[in-house]
Amino acid sequence: MVQRDRSTLNEDMDASRVRGKTPVAARIAGLAVVLTLVLALAGGRGVGVAAQDATPAGGDSGECVANEGSAPEADAGGETDATPVAGGEAEAGPVGTPAEDSLTIDAVVAAQNLVNCYNDRDLEAVSTLVTANLLESKFGATSAGDVVAAFEGGFLLAYTVQEIGNAQTYDDGRASVDITYVAGELQYVQATWYMLTDGDEFFVDEEVLEDAPFLDVESVATVSLTIADDETPLAFDQTTENTIQEAINFTVINDGAEDHVVVFYRLATDAAAGTPVPGDVAPEDAEVVAFVNVPAGDRETVTLVGAPVGVYLVADPNVEGSTAPFSITEPAE
Fold first, then answer.
1. CB 267 within 8 A of CB 282
2. How high is the pLDDT of residue 212?
């Protein structure tokens, strides 16, 4: 990647453009034939890629194509957030209609293209493929510059796509695809990406995470953390020591009035460093393994798959001293 002047990445998203790129229409036309064959073989159910066969950031992750136009305004009635109800459950999201084959192809290509640009760390291109709402709801950012800072802080992990499919359309003109990916090496994500469209260009407007991702594994543990308010450090609700599992679901509950970005670190295996205690700052050599933006008054699930034995730290960077350690251990003999 060529290092860009930081100021150019802080410009308003509508002014962000990447010149000299192949037009999106040509990109879609080039991939349409391949995807049509894939969709036909898969019975129209979408495109699936095994995690071990996908290419993470740093390799040939595929062509990245910027949009040339600006994202259209979202329909005021296009809310996709589920409404919390008694008992912690949530009402179902919007009901869509299965997209026609041509739109399915375009939507799948658009989603994969965003992943390509994201994995290439091409923030100028990414800023033309998403809306301001996506930056805020997913990254807790108000500008592309904030996302650049998150990249530099190591918070944003490369995506290994496992499946994209189930394209839907909605009465308000939006489209969506279901996507399953692994962020970094451990964070397993199942989500729906809602998109705004303008001609043949797609703009990802929102990512809605599955509350409890479906995992074909034999051992799963579930623990929860709570953010009591916007000033109190987050804390685990149960034990902070877990025996190693194929998957661990961390439910992060935000009872505050503001959104909170929560980052999961894996600490270096250095016995001399000692065991961290709540409030400890993540050391410089800590590895970011997952992150999530939790809306005010809501909850999100972070799923770690194949997390190895070790010491970890969960942090809320916007609240001083808001960290909570946990460990993954070998089962007792």
1. yes
2. 73
Q: How many whole angstroms separate alpha carbon 68 and alpha carbon 157?
A: 26
Q: Which residues contact 73 (CB under 8 A, 6 or more apart)?
A: none
Contact yes or no for 264/289 (Cβ under 8 A): yes
Say which residue the tokens 């623990």 belong to: 223
d(CA 100, CA 226): 42
- In terms of residue numbers, what domain contains 238? 220-329
> Is 289 buried (19+), middle (13-18) or exposed (0-12) by CB count in 10 A?
buried
3-class DSSP state of 182: strand
* CA 311, chain centre distance (Å): 24
Regarding pTM above 0.90, the answer is no
- The DSSP letter of residue 115 is H
pLDDT digits (tens, 9 = 90+) for 109-166: 999 999 999 999 888 899 899 998 998 888 877 766 776 676 666 667 999 999 999 9
CA 73 to chain centre: 22
Reported as a single tens digit per residue, the pLDDT across 174-200 is 999 999 999 999 999 999 999 999 999
Whether 193 and 259 map to the same domain: the answer is no
Q: Are residues 168 and 28 in the same domain?
A: yes
